[in-house]
Amino acid sequence: MGWHGETLVGFDLETTGTEPLEARIVTAAVVEVRGGEAVVRRDWLADPGIRIPAQASAIHGISNERAMAEGRPVREVADELAGTLVGYWTRGVPVVAYNAAFDLTLLSAELRRHGLPGLSERLGGAPIGPVVDPYTIDRAVDRYRRGKRNLEAVCAEYGVVLDGAHQAAADALAAVLVACAIAERHASVAALTPGELHERQVGWYAQWAADFQSFLRRKGTPDAVIDPAWPLREPAPAVG
Known about the structure:
This protein is α/β, with parallel strands linked by helices and about 240 residues long. About 45% of the residues lie in helices and about 15% in strands. Strands 4-3-2-1-5-6 form a 6-stranded mixed sheet, sandwiched between helices. A hairpin with a 2-residue loop joins strand 2 (about 25-35) and strand 3 (about 35-45). Helix 3 crosses helix 4 (about 100-115), helix 6 packs across helix 10 (about 195-220) and helix 7 crosses helix 8 (about 170-185). The protein is globular. The mean pLDDT is about 95.
């Protein structure tokens, strides 16, 4: 049994938008999984400090009124969430996030926005990880499969039941179960250590970004740029 038989921690955010350097946290969940079962779960509801667009509320079900009435200040939520993830990494436990480059970049941006220590800073300057991203892994090991690659579609592909899509805890648990299912199907993935898998994903994501950028430029968007950084994007340096 490889890494997928050990303790894993699912992580998911539901947010105000789709741009990770600009969107804000609305809900978050961390789910510790052992033997395919959730054994520890933590949930957060934040007041993001800005209005939640109607299209975002329609996806995750959190209204502005509820966030303002029941949510904690997003600064507190981001700080606790970062501390929780770093605690797992310090123990060597992999954090599993579907499309990790979105969730971790958004969390990092929230920390920066509120003047809080970043993820790497909390690790004494060490790189974050290990991170397991089923989205990145699935694209690498089954590159030519047609169809969508969102969490619902990939759950269906690997026979994972997703009960409550776009609820942070449900998505976090599903991400772990999908990661394990991919490892069960692909022995080459299961054989890697978490650290080795993390490094492979850095390369896989960069290759996908280069290929997708080339595709967009061929299709009429000559200035398209896809950031190859994984699992964390950094903002462009200020000019002037």
